[in-house]
Amino acid sequence: MSDSGGSWLDSVYELLSASRRRYVLYYFLDNENATIDDLVRQVSEWESDVVPRSIRVSLHHNHLPRLAEHGLVEYGDDNVQITSRFSTLRNTVAHSRAIETNSQDTQGPLTYGSESEPVSEPVFED
Fold first, then answer.
1. Would you place residue 2 in the very low, low, confident or very high pLDDT band (cuts 50, 70, 90)?
2. Which domain holds residue 36?
3. What is the rounded average pLDDT of the residues 8-21?
4. What is the pLDDT of residue 112?
5. Does residue 117 belong to any structural domain of this protein?
């Protein structure tokens, strides 16, 4: 993950764009290491109607390698641990989890800040 402004931000949003990668990162907000079984169990709790084997395969072949490529985790046969680089994303991941949790707990529009201000598309003036 490049540390330069736009490139870094592109990488962050790309990593957060896949729900399973987000769920793995959410898990590491509260834990420094895990087994793949721990991650499969947690992701299967957040996703419904998904076969745990498919979660394991996607974590092993897609999501964990991408997180490792960006230096956020290290993993071996069955163990996964966060690296010190995860701290650069910790606040962003926590904010993402709060937004996602809020949207699942409420029926109305997703809100940010006060409950009376729904999130809307930004307005850009020419």
1. low
2. 5-105
3. 94
4. 42
5. no
Q: Does a structural domain hold residue 114? A: no
Q: Over 70: is that where the pLDDT of 92 sits? A: yes
Please give the average per-residue pLDDT across 61-87, as a whole number. Answer: 96
Half-sphere exposure of 67 (CA within 13 A, CB side): 30
Q: What is the CATH number of the domain that holds 98?
A: 1.10.10.10
Distance of alpha carbon 122 from alpha carbon 126, whole angstroms = 13
Q: What is the pTM of this model?
A: 0.77
* Phi and psi torsions of 122, nearest 5°: -70, 150
Q: How many residues does the chain have?
A: 126
Helices (H), 1-126: 5-16, 19-30, 36-46, 52-58, 64-69, 90-105
- Residue with token string 């046969």: 77
**3-class secondary-structure state, position 2:** coil
Assigned token pair, 75 = 């993993």
Residue type for 111, please?
T
